[in-house]
Amino acid sequence: MKGWLGKILRIDLTNKTYKAEDIDLETQKMFLGGHGVATNILMDEMDPKVDPLSPDNKLIFSIGPLTGTAAPLGSRYMVTTKSPLTGLLGFGNSGGFFGPAMRNAGYDHIIFEGKSDKPVYVVVTDEGVEFRDAAHIWGKDSHETEDIIRKDLEGSGKRPRIACIGPAGEKLSLIAAIMNDKHRAAARCGIGAVMGSKNLKALAVMGSKKAEVAREEELKQVAKMAVEMLKTNPGTEGFTLFGTASMVMLLSEMGILPTRNFQRSAFEKAMDISGERMSETILQKKKGCYGCVISCGRGTKISEPGYEEEGEGPEYETLALLGSNLGIGNLNTITKANYLCNRLGLDTISTGGTIACAMELYEKGYLTKEDTGGLEIKFGDEALVLKLVEMIGKREGFGNVLADGGYRLAQKQGHLECFMGMHKLELPGYEPRGAKGMGVSYMTSTIGASHCRGYTIPFEILHTAGNLDPIEERGKEMASKASQDMIAAWDATGLCLFASAGITMIEVCALLMAATGVGFGGIFHFLSIGERIFNLQRLFNLKAGIKLEDEKLPDRFYKEPLPDGPNKGAMLDLKRTMDFYCHLRGWDENRVPYYGKLKNLGIEKYSMVPPLGQ
């Protein structure tokens, strides 16, 4: 194969064995790569009802056919598993340099099975696999872990790239992330806890295999054109100038910036935590992942006494969830909290959402000092936020309760109305009453509330993909479905989603054809691959036990009008919208895909309903 490596590495942690296997071309063509093929593996090999923290769960690291090639922004790797936080499909996607290193080692997918009897880290090269004792790094944070492993592997002649967990993953926090390149995170769904449950501290990959493609000169030419489009498109300019933090002021002004646990939608201190303010104060340099021409990453440094540290970020989601959503307007505090999350191996979105849930519970008297170990959990308390992040990562005191996410906290207190999430996964930084397409996407996402499984902001706010009124519900079902299908296929290629701000699916298909030598029949063929992946993931969740009654957003969004901002008075209904969404999807009233839809997509063997007439 070209573009694809055609290889799976299967690692048995229980018996410390491994074997390489071939992937057939038809599977690659149907699911592209990444989480597409990984979901197919889970469906074929694992009971979706498995206990996520048991040895029977599989943890799959994957790349796409464009990862590590000449394709611009081809940096991404994915982790697919069953989530211990949601009980549904779990998925994380990260950039940096780990994904291209997987290609150099020679594998499209690395599957971890079983559980080691003691902490280990695994080294994968193009020559084989080594299981190493991790006793000396168990308990270390992600930065220390990477530094120690690099020292352990000195003299190998190759530069290792490392994905690891911090203390949060070791202690099975259900909001734990997997960290790579110290500052990059495959963060959502508690996938770090799955890694910890297997006693797997880290995966180090290194190799010297060249990225073989079908038509190298053609790929270079298409890549050159794509680079020019990315550099000159106004859609990427904000990311280059101010990083993802460029969204803070825009979303606050548009009335969709989550504030004080989504009780409000605009933050009075938005400018103080914006990308513009970051550039004036803590920014040291712009940073990019492998093959990146946008450089949305921010190398930052805090100089304020008591906060001194260097690192990367924070990104927009972190600024929203650990900033405005907690009533925090001090950029140094948010940045320090971000650094802590990275070291401890925590998802910043879920960490911020969980703390915000605790703050509202405390504000309303549902949570007391007796519950918190004497802590006053108040919005805007900067020192408290830093303390809680550390307590969560180490499962200390009240942090032990928060480490399992906001849903379980609110459930324990008997007030689930204070949890802002879907399927136990905390909401990201977009208020759905003010951008109703995001409400549809949250409700139908295959992993719970996520902006990375369906993103209608380009239709509703940025107007780079369309021009839909953000508080009008009509049309959002179509925008959401199109976005979900596009993203499912786009991610599977190994390209960063931010490339979509400057290039289209036409260029992506051209890149794929040059890399693989396989024909991709334009936009509709590409979208059909995404639709296939999306429906397969839906089937996994149905077989895992997802319930229709759980597939709605918190009551706040349906019953409490937005109290401020340009969308003041807006609420959700979405009933007719969801009916039409199911019609577009080819799903029945219980959101189960019809047999005919699955047959059309070539995955009817997984159907939960018989063909018509049987």
Automatic annotation (TrEMBL):
Keywords: 4Fe-4S, Iron, Iron-sulfur, Membrane, Metal-binding, Oxidoreductase, Transmembrane, Transmembrane helix. It is an enzyme of class 1 (oxidoreductase). Its EC number is 1.2.7.5. Gene3D superfamilies: Aldehyde Ferredoxin Oxidoreductase Protein, subunit A, domain 2, Aldehyde Ferredoxin Oxidoreductase Protein, subunit A, domain 3, Aldehyde ferredoxin oxidoreductase, N-terminal domain. Residues 4-209 form the Aldehyde ferredoxin oxidoreductase N-terminal domain. It comes from the Bacteria. Its cofactor is tungstopterin; [4Fe-4S] cluster. The keyword Flavoprotein does not apply. The keyword Endoplasmic reticulum does not apply. Signal peptide: none annotated. Belongs to the AOR/FOR family. PANTHER family: ALDEHYDE FERREDOXIN OXIDOREDUCTASE, TUNGSTEN-CONTAINING ALDEHYDE FERREDOXIN OXIDOREDUCTASE. This is Tungsten-containing aldehyde ferredoxin oxidoreductase. It comes from uncultured Desulfobacterium sp. The lineage of its organism: Bacteria, Pseudomonadati, Thermodesulfobacteriota, Desulfobacteria, Desulfobacterales. The gene is aor.
